[in-house]
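[job 4471] stage=fold_predict status=RUNNING
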Amino acid sequence: MHLILASASPRRRELMRLITEEFEVITADIDERELESSLGDIPAKDVSERIARAKAEAVWSTLSPSDTEDAVVVAADTSVISGDRIMGKPKDRAEAGQMLTELSGKIHSVVTGVWIIKDNKGKGFSEETFVEFCPLDRFQQETIESYISTSDPYDKAGGYGIQNGGALLVKRVNGDYFNVVGLPVMALSRELAALEDDNRCEA
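[job 4471] inference complete, writing structure tokens
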């Protein structure tokens, strides 16, 4: 099995290495946010899987017929959802502060959609984790101000990276921690193991 990760995210590459060291990275040439806006009025929880599918299909379409014989393409997309609204990446300090203030004292959802293509057939799934931020007291406000002074929030959905300084804003996590970072490693490892078993049966 030739595993291809369709992602430019260094965090997803690190997490994929928890599953296997044997994979190639090919990035998908799509505008994720433009695609998100084109999806129309679908539930926020379904958006990530649709984007992951587009990424996987974009990479699959670049492969030659001989390359697809043993290829498995995996793509993922992560959404931070507050209420029924997807929170994107903040464009500036003010927006980052507004996002983190809004999330404080509440529980929000982090959904990662995954799409896998093998033998020109696709299969998707989503993993949801619930994250509770600390209350918006003086310490939380000071932590937010300190955090948005770094470069970390600005390439992260929802304006925080739980694996970095954003961890100081979080009270508890209910579900797969790695899903919040960007890849549900337990669920994905099981899906890939099932594909390996299918390959053995076919052989």
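[job 4471] summary: The first helix runs from residue 10 to 19.
[job 4471] exit 0
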